[in-house]
Specification:
Layout (H helix, E strand, L loop, with lengths): L3 H6 L2 H27 L3 H12 L3 H6 L2 H7 L2 H30 L1 H9 L1 H13 L5 H18 L3
Helix pairs in contact: 2-7, 3-6, 6-7, 7-9, 8-9
């Protein structure tokens, strides 16, 4: 329902962006399932993925990426190093993998599904961007589904 809004307002590029998020969701689900299936520890998973990510560094350097990074200055780079290099990168990966160990794949997989809904809610509360009626309906649907999925049987 949240993605349906982009068809009318953004057009084909909005739909393409939504489909990329769907693909990302499938990849994330596969990752979570394989972590549980292979019984990989949270620390090992986060370490391997983040070390493998460094393999893209030579490509970034060759494409002139370091010149752009140095141009924005030390304070912005320090903020990005903490936000993306620690919190959104290895920190988030470790916590997700650890939650799979504690909760199991089915229960842990529900939490990433609420990210778009929470982003909509935080954008409304912090940025003053109220959701449209369709987006609000999507928010209620996602949060209701989250509640129902977490109930004990």
């Amino acid at each position: 329902m949240i993605g349906l809004e982009s068809i009318g307002h953004i057009g084909p590029s909005g739909v393409q962006g939504d489909l990329i998020f769907v693909l990302t969701g499938f990849m994330f689900a596969g990752f979570g399932t394989l972590l549980r299936y292979w019984r990989v520890s949270a620390f090992s998973a986060a370490a391997v993925i983040n070390v493998l990510s460094l393999s893209l560094l030579p490509v970034y350097v060759a494409s002139g990426g370091l010149a752009r990074v140095t141009a924005i200055g030390l304070p912005e780079n320090a903020l990005q190093a903490v936000a993306q290099g620690i919190l959104a990168g290895p920190g988030a990966m470790y916590l997700f993998a650890f939650s799979i160990q504690l909760l199991g794949v089915a229960r842990a997989a529900v939490f990433p599904a609420i990210v778009p809904a929470l982003t909509l809610l935080v954008g409304w509360l912090l940025l003053g961007e109220p959701p449209t009626a369709l987006q609000a309906a999507g928010l209620v649907t996602v949060l209701s589904g989250f509640y129902l999925a977490q109930r004990q049987r």
